[in-house]
Amino acid sequence: MRFAFTDEQAMIAETATDLFVGEATSERTRAAMADGSGRDVALWDSLSGTGFVGVHMPGDVGGSELGMVELAIIAEAAGRQVAAVPLIATQAALSALHADGRADLIERVLGGQVATLALAGGLAPHGTIADLFLIEQDGGLVVADRDAVDVVAGTTMDQTRPLAQVTLTWAPIATLSAKALDAAKHTGWIAVAADALGGAQACLDRTVEYVKERQQFGQTIGGFQAIKHRLADMMVEIEQARSAVYWAACAVDEGAEDAELALHSAKAFAADAYATCAGAMIQLHGGIGFTWEHDAHLFFKRAQADRTLFGSSAQHREAIAQIIGLGAIAA
Amino acid sequence: MKLGFTEAEEAFRVEAATWLTAALSGPFADVRGVTSLVEMPERRREWEKYLAASRWSCIGWPAQYGGRDATLAQQVIFAEEYARAGGPPRLNHLGIELIGPTILAYGSDEQKARFLPAIANGDHIWCQGYSEPGAGSDLGGVRTKAWREGGDWVIEGQKVWTSLAQFCDWIFVIARTDPESVGSKGLSFLLVPMDQDGVTVRNIVQMTGESEFNETFFDAARTDAANILGEPGQGWGVAMALLGFERGVSTLGQQMGFRNELDDLIEAARANGSAGDPVIRQKIAQAEIGLRLMRYGALRMLTASADGGSNPAAFTYKIQWANWRQSLGELAMEVLGQAGEISDAHGEYAFSRLPHLFLYSRADTIYGGTNEIQRNIIAERALGLPREARTRAK
Ligand SMILES: Cc1cc2nc3c(=O)[nH]c(=O)nc-3n(C[C@H](O)[C@H](O)[C@H](O)COP(=O)(O)OP(=O)(O)OC[C@H]3O[C@@H](n4cnc5c(N)ncnc54)[C@H](O)[C@@H]3O)c2cc1C
């Protein structure tokens, strides 16, 4: 038992942070939002190039042979910058393909293609630019190419992750097992939770920076206890979210008995914490926080999107209720 | 990053569990499952001795003072197995978890040799003399005085909210030894025997109807001049370092107690059908999540301190568990409904575990630094926000 990053993991965290801070700038993210794709192409190429997209894939298909902890580290760094990249669904799809040994399709994705994942009743993130579609069906997944699906997209509130309604209209190229569906969900939940953790931490850090500068009533507003206490409460939530994300990642990597519980906990807790922190960020910035120009709304909208992607917080809590033996919901 | 334990560590788990189960189903079956801090104090003192005799009392301490030099993983495992076996709250909690580690860090070799084995084997049960009528959150307001007279320190003043003073042999006291000083300066950290004419303990009944804490009066009380930790006038640093030990491995044992409380609540919800209510289910699931996250938060901070560093989770831990437990108490009453407000006890004010938790947990956000003080600490020390203005009349 050693619940801290190894030296190698700390290095990956540093590299990932540098990459996202350097490339996922507000200007570039906003450009990707404006063109409707939600993808910063150059950043996506960098992520493929560094092996971050396939961080959790085996070496023989071109992956980096690491695990969920490293995947979470990268997703956290992406979330911190609200990076506009189709990372989460692509990585979830890779896990599904890997679970069923589809090296051919994994190679396509690691070659730079975008994959998306539409769970039952859910929308497909980055569906409008995806090349490969994994769609939940009959307890497993079907895999389809672009020309075999109908993609309908309007405007998505979170423009860093445009959502699309995807319907299969032609023959799929593959069918994946229930085990593959589980693998996709597990990776997806960890990645969303880590994205939320990074986002929440950014909301706290940026707000702390702001309240140390902003002056009102002849002092910096960071000296007011109402503000200090709200920021402290944000940190209390974030530190729990951090425990949740890395607990879930370790539990999956180590095949722990409580992995399911950890995954649902991480997804529900981290996404809710993000929403709380992003809301507080707007409030503590005052009017400037309500503008389009300020980045606060990017975090606020992505927090909302993280809450609903791959199951809502309430659904994940209900799953926990079942696991801990609360029985069925009364009719 | 790794959460699992090695084979050798799992073997240690079996050894600890076997010993604990034998003890708590054999000679100490009567204290098994006790949860109250004040129940059966004499038997629990014997339990301390029994633990110490087999070196299970303070396993993280150096062997020469009664410990086993146990690794962090072993301490984690022992805390979990202790709670799983139904071990009662440690009567000497403050000795083992707070003053012991502080003596290890700040004491002279003589002090270590004199006090540590006696803590480990339950000969000296300790209590904490920080708070006073005029000094709660603001400990710098301490007025209790002490001065040297011959080979002794003489102590005058009053402490309050002294938990378990009625059972204790020793008390650690923050006293003002420089009469000209104000605030955190001029304080000393004294170790004082309770069994003397100069010390009087008066019970205070708390809102649960029980009486855990006390007023403690010092009227020309004495302690040997050697019984000071740190230099005269430098007591503040020692006092604050002691509070840092509150987030040690014992937190994991505490969490196992929380586990039992949540299990009781789940049991009650299943029994009265509220477990089928979608809203209650959401809240119970949230409580389950919160409890799990407490364990992993604790493992993060314990790993960091074993590495000689610190982790931000250490700043947020107190408020996290205090809020969690208070919410659990409220949820318990929501689950129990009106039935939770009456008890079978006749003639005494006593409730079963969950309604008791509802009442008791109001204290969790007060002692050990109130939630408001915790938020100040997080904001000022972890986030680097401006410090509050402090004013204090001399
Ligand atoms: C069950 C229990 C057991 C205890 N056991 C012990 C013990 O064994 N030994 C011991 O020494 N003490 C003990 N205490 C005392 C405990 O440490 C104090 O109660 C606590 O530190 C608060 O001090 P106070 O009660 O004087 O409240 P005050 O400090 O008067 O606080 C009153 C209210 O004001 C708030 N407040 C105070 N200062 C600020 C500020 N700067 N900003 C914002 N809000 C503020 C507080 O948060 C609180 O809500 C115990 C208390 C309880 C309830």
TrEMBL record, chain A:
Residues 6-111 form the Acyl-CoA dehydrogenase/oxidase N-terminal domain. It comes from the Bacteria. It comes from Sphingomonas montanisoli. This is Acyl-CoA dehydrogenase. One of its GO terms (molecular function) is acyl-CoA dehydrogenase activity. Its cofactor is FAD. Belongs to the acyl-CoA dehydrogenase family. Keywords: FAD, Flavoprotein, Oxidoreductase. Transmembrane segments: none annotated. Residues 190-323 form the Acyl-CoA dehydrogenase/oxidase C-terminal domain.
TrEMBL record, chain B:
Its cofactor is FAD. SUPFAM superfamilies: Acyl-CoA dehydrogenase C-terminal domain-like, Acyl-CoA dehydrogenase NM domain-like. Belongs to the acyl-CoA dehydrogenase family. It comes from Sphingomonas montanisoli. InterPro entries: Acyl-CoA_Oxase/DH_mid-dom, Acyl-CoA_Oxase/DH_mid-dom_sf, AcylCo_DH-like_C, AcylCo_DH/oxidase_C, AcylCoA_DH/ox_N, AcylCoA_DH/ox_N_sf, AcylCoA_DH/oxidase_NM_dom_sf, Mycobact_Acyl-CoA_DH. Residues 6-123 form the Acyl-CoA dehydrogenase/oxidase N-terminal domain. One of its GO terms (cellular component) is plasma membrane. Keywords: FAD, Flavoprotein, Oxidoreductase. This is Acyl-CoA dehydrogenase. It holds the Pfam family Acyl-CoA_dh_M. One of its GO terms (molecular function) is oxidoreductase activity, acting on the CH-CH group of donors. Residues 233-382 form the Acyl-CoA dehydrogenase/oxidase C-terminal domain. Residues 127-218 form the Acyl-CoA oxidase/dehydrogenase middle domain.
